[in-house]
Design brief:
Layout: E1 3-9, H1 15-34, E2 38-46, E3 53-61, H2 65-71, E4 74-79, E5 92-100, E6 114-119, H3 127-131, E7 135-140, E8 145-149, H4 155-187, E9 199-201
Parallel strand pairs: 4-9
Antiparallel strand pairs: 1-3, 1-5, 2-3, 4-5, 6-7, 7-8
């Protein structure tokens, strides 16, 4: 694998999970650099706090991409006290990460890939249609899609219609594949399972927990 995309998501977790995504993405980028890989953040969804992310999509390129992606796929844990809430009591913040695809390859249409066969069809049009093979059966060899055009009495017109039908069918097929890909991508956000992480990462320096909110002292009356 020379190139891949990796999606890292806080799922439906609290603001600390968005912080964890930012920290873990930076940790992954540093590890990738050490392996001689090139990374790029191609898509980010910011969190409620500055510098945090609900999700990040990283493009990773290089010979060791497959090994890195495998090592970062699954539930990840960022272990540190909350910098936002005092007394949260929790120090494990979980995120989900896994490979994803951003774009669907488009099917290139070329008439050279289409087999055109004259045929006869019944139905409206009178005996002329039954005696002369003016209908067209067009087969797109790469995908196996077959269409039949018989609305016109001239073979050339039906051929043009059949080719247009194939183009539309291929476009609809690509759009459906793209929608399925998008659905699969967003499903990752709901696949977060707390516990049993594939990696546990900690800050290089201790994180200072959030201080308790100061209480206002009532001033004695004069």
């Amino acid at each position: 694998m020379s190139g891949a995309h990796l999606l890292m998501s806080a799922g439906r977790g609290p603001q600390e999970c968005a912080w964890a995504v930012a920290e873990l993405a930076a940790r992954l980028e540093a590890e990738a650099a050490g392996l001689g890989l090139v990374t790029e953040r191609v898509e980010t969804v910011p969190g409620d706090r500055a510098g945090t992310f609900r999700s990040v999509v990283l493009r990773i390129d290089g010979e060791a991409t497959g090994r890195l992606v495998a090592a970062w796929t699954g539930t990840l844990c960022w272990q540190a006290p909350s910098p936002y809430r005092a007394g949260a009591g929790r120090k494990n913040w979980y995120v989900i990460a896994g490979p994803c695809r951003l774009d669907t390859p488009r099917t290139e249409f070329a008439e050279a890939d289409v087999d055109i066969v004259p045929c006869r069809t019944g139905g409206p049009g009178g005996q002329h249609r039954n005696k002369v093979s003016t209908a067209v059966r067009a087969t797109h060899r790469p995908t196996g899609i077959v269409v039949v055009a018989d609305t016109e009495r001239q073979f050339g017109l039906n051929r043009r219609i059949a080719l247009d039908q194939l183009r539309r069918r291929l476009q609809e097929r690509d759009e459906a594949a793209g929608a399925a890909l998008e659905t699969a991508r967003w499903r990752v956000h709901d696949e977060l399972v707390r516990g049993d992480p594939v990696r546990v990462e900690r800050p290089a320096r201790p994180v200072r927990a959030a201080a308790p909110a100061s209480r206002r002292r009532s001033r004695p009356g004069r």
